């Protein structure tokens, strides 16, 4: 079966890790679309405070199947 995807672009952040930032982005996208199928991290950034990493931020493209 062939699929058509809507692509959502979101940014997630986390004080813990890049992985948690991705999880936060996917969770937020899941509130908009219930048919999420894949993701691609397209940018990774970090914020520095006092010479230390304060939090991570990722830009993520998420594919969701479109219902026919």
What features would you describe in this structure?
This protein is an alpha+beta fold. Helix content is 22%, strand content 56%. It has one helix and three strands; from the N terminus they run E-H-E-E. It has one helix at 18-32; strands at 5-14, 36-49, 52-65. The protein has a three-stranded antiparallel beta sheet. A hairpin with a 2-residue loop joins strand 2 (36-49) and strand 3. It is elongated. The N and C termini lie close together (12 Å).
Strand count, sense and barrel status of the largest sheet are:
3 strands, antiparallel
Number of separate helices: 1
- Average pLDDT reading: 94
Pattern of helices and strands: EHEE
Sheet with most strands: strand arrangement: 1-3-2
Helix percentage: 10-25%
Instruction: State Rg.
Output: 14 Å
User: Which regions contain 5 or more consecutive residues with pLDDT less than 50?
Assistant: none
Q: What is the structural class?
A: alpha+beta
So what's the overall shape? elongated
Task: Name the beta content range.
Answer: over 45%
Distance between the amino and carboxyl termini: 12 Å
**Annotation, overall tally of beta strands:** 3
